[in-house]
Specification:
The protein has 41 residues and is mostly helical. The chain has one domain. The chain contains two helices and no strands.
Length: 41
Amino acid sequence: MGRGDKKSKKGKIFKGSFGKSRPARPAAAKKKAAAAQKASK
């Protein structure tokens, strides 16, 4: 469980990848974007 572990958040930061433990966009940002898009229609 460290920098070499691709499944951990620290490992994903080290690798520069995204996934379940390190989402590219946090869930709160996704909800905010969806609400903004719905309001603009």
